[in-house]
């Protein structure tokens, strides 16, 4: 089993719809582009053919990525409260710097004005379970230990 992706119900539905679109209409359209490009003749110098094949490769990669997420996901149903956990918007001050707001969840989730942080990241692991005004430390990839203050925790 791969990495568990924390998704809201809305994000799950959006990803399922994208997967369906790519595996049905998307594949058909790319196959048609490749076929039209083949009809132009010499494939070795056919830019349309190579572009269509590149598009197909990127699309198939996205399909595999979506399948991995859809097979290994957990629905996040955030409860009210000020406890940091998946599905919450968390404002942090790291080493006394200006506060920054993060959405704690899958990279497939996007919220305007908030960067996304996974609960599996070092910082994510350090803040899960904390409350507003709690302080904790976490180790950066370079091995530095930084102090973090949880400013606020809220539902998106």
Polypeptide structure, described:
With 156 residues, the protein is of the alpha/beta class. The chain has two domains: 5-75, Helix Hairpins, CATH 1.10.287; 88-154, Transcription elongation factor, GreA/GreB, C-terminal domain (Chitinase A, domain 3, Roll), CATH 3.10.50.30. It is 39% helix and 23% strand. The protein has three helices and seven strands. The chain has helices at residues 9-38, 47-71, 122-127; strands spanning 5-7, 73-75, 88-94, 100-104, 115-117, 135-139, 145-154. It has a five-stranded mixed β-sheet. Strands 1-2 form a two-stranded parallel sheet. β3 (88-94) and β4 (100-104) form a beta hairpin. α1 packs antiparallel against α2 (47-71). The two termini are 29 Å apart. The model has no long low-confidence stretch (mean pLDDT 90).
* CATH top-level class of the largest domain: Mainly Alpha
Individual helix count: 3
Spatial ordering of strands, largest sheet: 5-4-3-7-6
Number of extended strands? 7
DSSP helix fraction: 25-40%
Describe the protein's topology.
Elements: E1 5-7, H1 9-38, H2 47-71, E2 73-75, E3 88-94, E4 100-104, E5 115-117, H3 122-127, E6 135-139, E7 145-154
Parallel strand pairs: 1-2, 4-5
Antiparallel strand pairs: 3-4, 3-7, 6-7
Short description:
With 156 residues, this protein is α/β, with parallel strands linked by helices. The chain is built from three helices and seven strands; from the N terminus they run E-H-H-E-E-E-E-H-E-E.
Overview features:
156 residues; alpha/beta; 2 domains; five-stranded mixed beta sheet; two-stranded parallel ribbon; elongated
């Amino acid at each position: 089993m791969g990495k568990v992706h924390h998704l809201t119900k809305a994000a799950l539905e959006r990803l399922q719809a994208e997967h369906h679109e790519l595996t049905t209409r998307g594949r058909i359209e790319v196959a048609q582009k490749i076929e039209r490009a083949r009809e132009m003749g010499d494939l070795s110098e056919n830019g349309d053919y190579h572009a269509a094949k590149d598009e197909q490769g990127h699309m198939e990669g996205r399909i595999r990525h979506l399948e991995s997420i859809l097979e290994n996901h957990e629905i996040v149903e955030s409860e009210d409260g000020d406890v940091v956990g998946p599905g919450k918007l968390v404002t942090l001050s790291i080493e006394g710097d200006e506060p920054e707001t993060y959405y704690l969840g899958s990279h497939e989730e996007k919220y305007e004005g908030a960067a996304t942080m996974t609960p599996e990241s070092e910082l994510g692991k350090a803040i899960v379970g904390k409350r507003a005004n709690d302080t904790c430390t976490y180790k950066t990839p370079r091995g530095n230990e930084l102090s973090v203050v949880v400013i606020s925790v809220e539902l998106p």
